[in-house]
Automatic annotation (TrEMBL):
It comes from Streptomyces sp. gb1(2016). Keywords: DNA-binding, Phosphoprotein, Transcription, Transcription regulation. The modification 4-aspartylphosphate is found at D54. One of its GO terms (biological process) is phosphorelay signal transduction system. Residues 3-121 form the Response regulatory domain. SUPFAM superfamilies: C-terminal effector domain of the bipartite response regulators, CheY-like. GO terms for molecular function: DNA binding. Pfam families: GerE (PF00196), Response_reg (PF00072). This is DNA-binding response regulator. The keyword Mitochondrion does not apply. Residues 148-213 form the HTH luxR-type domain. InterPro entries: CheY-like_superfamily, NreC/VraR/RcsB-like_REC, Sig_transdc_resp-reg_C-effctor, Sig_transdc_resp-reg_receiver, Tscrpt_reg_LuxR_C, WalR-like.
Length: 221
């Protein structure tokens, strides 16, 4: 059972998400929060698998709440998915840098939302299908200039190759087809790269791929 915490200051939005999620046999809403501070408190109390976190909330916004959650070692298993009204929200990439595992636009189709929640908990997705891979590059282009990538020295050539493919938004299945290996082998390489780099999840691996210069905006064609 996937346990989800809803954090949004709009009651109607929370009610809509709750109705959709609670109708699924493998998902339940563990709790609701109307602001970031309450979200952090409930995450520590309820330990959900994932949090659907609105970026803009009173008292404490979603970015600050996300940093508080992802910065707590005791909550390392909790995945945060940011909710935004617009795909080009200026805070989206900052949310990923803050430790969020991905983001969803609020008008995402119900089936896509459910698929995204399951995928993020499984550790196999970054963004909702409604957000293009080109958008990842756009926000990466706004990040700081790539620094000396000495922290990549511990990776094998194959792990660097896989990390670069993760960086341009490919799933494990797509990486497997690109490299002519099994999806399990691709997932193993991704996992090893994450462990070696201390990446919290796949989203953090993407950020590191851009910040190291391993992937550059514009490579998506």
């Amino acid at each position: 059972m996937i346990r989800v915490l809803l954090a949004d200051d709009q009651l109607l939005v929370r009610a809509g998400f709750r109705a959709l999620l609670d109708a699924q046999p493998d998902i339940e809403v563990a709790g609701e929060a109307a602001d970031g501070a309450e979200a952090v408190r409930l995450v520590r109390e309820l330990r959900p698998d994932t949090v659907l976190m609105d970026i803009r909330m009173p008292k404490q916004d979603g970015l600050a709440a996300t940093r508080a959650i992802t910065g707590d070692p005791a909550l390392s298993d909790v995945k945060v998915v940011m909710l935004t009204t617009f795909e080009l929200d200026e805070y989206v990439f900052e949310a990923i840098r803050s430790g969020a595992s991905g983001f969803l636009v609020k008008d995402t189709e119900p089936d896509e939302l459910l698929r995204a929640v399951r995928a993020v908990v499984d550790g196999d997705a970054l963004l909702s299908p409604g957000v293009t891979r080109r958008l990842i590059a756009e926000f990466a282009a706004r990040s700081k200039e790539p620094a000396a990538a000495t922290f990549l020295d511990g990776l094998t050539e194959r792990e660097r190759e896989v990390m670069a493919l993760v960086g341009i938004g490919l799933s494990n299945e797509e990486i497997a087809r690109r490299l002519v290996v099994s999806p399990l082998t691709a997932k193993t390489h991704v996992s090893r790269a994450m462990v070696k780099l201390g990446a919290r999840d796949r989203a953090q691996l993407v950020v590191l791929a851009y910040e190291s210069g391993l992937v550059r905006p514009g490579w998506l064609g």
